[in-house]
Amino acid sequence: MKIRITNDGNEQDIADVFEMLKAYNLSKLETSDVDPVGVYYDDESGRKLAGLTGETFGNWLCIKYLVVDESLRGQGIGSKLLKAAEEEAKKRGCKYSFVDTFSFQAPAFYVKHGYKEVFALKEYPITGARYYYTKEL
């Protein structure tokens, strides 16, 4: 046995570790479907201008990404995407939502929409912060 340290981000190494962890987790977690959810805002030509991606898992909506083109920010598009994702999650039986965001991204946006901070990583990665929020749906 040997310990190997790398700095190459080898995709196969990462996939191997992920599969090992996934197998263990699935042996311990309750059975629950993981279903992707996507909400998008496209222009007339089909060009994506904003979107929210994530998944529903058991009781939870887990938001992975939410972005609105800078030229459209402040017009309520992000709020509409978030509300649509939350409504879809409720239809799927979710009771809660989870998201994380950096200090330069959207902490105030999520708080405005009823999200509560559960913890924060300060000085992340050096001078910023990363916030973790949940909300009862």
TrEMBL record:
Keywords: Transferase. The keyword Transcription regulation does not apply. Pfam families: Acetyltransf_7 (PF13508). InterPro entries: Acyl_CoA_acyltransferase, GNAT_dom. Transmembrane segments: none annotated. PROSITE patterns: GNAT. Residues 1-137 form the N-acetyltransferase domain. One of its GO terms (molecular function) is acyltransferase activity, transferring groups other than amino-acyl groups. This is Acetyltransferase (GNAT) family protein. It comes from Butyrivibrio hungatei.
